[in-house]
Prior knowledge:
Layout: H1 20-33, H2 42-60
Amino acid sequence: MKVQYRVGDMYSPKLEDHEALALETEHFVDCVSNAKMPLTGGSEGLEVVKVLVAAQESLKNRGLPVGL
Length: 68
């Protein structure tokens, strides 16, 4: 017997299959080449790095919460 937890209608749109890092690199090159402002800047990048460092620290400590 198969257990289902979803009740009701569901919509699942078809999404393009792209490599995230490749898209980021293309955007960066476009910004540098054409003197454009990036969609996100250094402060957003720093926040991402903080989350990644905290996640790694949590993994090292068997999933214990790590403050940001």
